[in-house]
Amino acid sequence: MNKLRMDEVDVRGKRVLMRVDFNVPMNEAGDITDDTRIRAALPSVDYLIAQGAKVILASHLGRPKGKVNAKYSLTPVAQRLSELLERPVAMAKDCVGEEVRQQAHRLRDGEVLLLENLRFHTEEEANDQEFARGLANLAELFVNDAFGTAHRAHASTAGVAAYIPAVAGFLMSREVDVMGRALANPERPFVAVIGGAKVSDKIDVIRSLISKVDTLIVGGGMANTFLRAQGFDVGRSLCESDKTDLAGELLELAKENTVRFLLPEDVVVAKAFDNDAPSKVVPVSGIEADDQALDIGPASVAVFAGALREAQTVIWNGPMGVFEMPSFAGGTREIAKAVAECAGVSIVGGGDSVAAVEMMGLASAMTHISTGGGASLEFLEGKVLPGVEALQER
Ligand code: ADP
Ligand code: MG
Fold it and tell me: What pTM was estimated for this model as a whole?
């Protein structure tokens, strides 16, 4: 990555504002139900503490829509972070303003302050310059470690960088490095697996990957639109009829680029979108008018897994079927295993794909699990992410 990382600048004794992603799921009682994101930030936070920086953490939580709402307070996160760090974490009443500024300026080396939810202010998402300046006034250095929001130009991801030097945290840096290298200089064969519900969500990423990969595998609900473009009847399966022309164009584009484009040969069909509905495997030419294709079949798995086994770089975004229902999770599980077994670099992005890989206990077998669903998609589309763009060049 050509962006400065926080261990390449002097942080000792400095007030460092670090944008993190503490947008954790909580239950009605306000208990954190999954602290993965807090744990993920620990290496960066620990580093700053060990270096004797004064650590000021900022995050959003949920969608409070610009209003103070106790339900979205980061106070429970401060408690959990404090347990994990085994040291006190002070909680600020707000994220900007004179009182918070004074609190930040009173911090001693190695102390940690968590700011209150950035999105209690509409100015955050509006990237308001005064608000960004208010954040910058808290600190001498800005570190962005929240890749998941890097595709948005908000005050705490982009705006603040206009006022104080901005560098990458370890998580951010790893995301951009691993995915950047895979796109710019991949070990080949380079195979992308794209799935999920809709073609329309992933047109841009497919288009961008066609110019880079050796093999493109398309499964999941979106495969139906491509099958339809090839003239197959997909019955009552999820299919975007208004996107069949586009799917045809993408198939043509793959041909022009001599990219191997793999679609399912067989699918698991049922008459209802229901885990308990009787299901069977049929070739894609055998889908009946009242069938719904809800997973890829074993012949497809064999072909896809074969391509994945030979790959030196794999990018996977989107499940192969309705993996939330055990009856239709088989294709996704087998593909997850094949990706995990691939000897090269394996990258998984996309909220549902990551959830599937975690559910199957295969996360640790992947080279990289992207923390940012939307952000990783935009990165793979080849877009410039404002939160990355704002960081200082090396
Ligand atoms: P990601 O979050 O990994 O980018 P998407 O959000 O694009 O993935 O798609 C995930 C959703 O696609 C899941 O909810 C899954 O049930 C659905 N899906 C996958 N295959 C099918 C299918 N054949 N029919 C209907 N829905 C599907
Ligand atoms: Mg999703």
Answer: 0.89
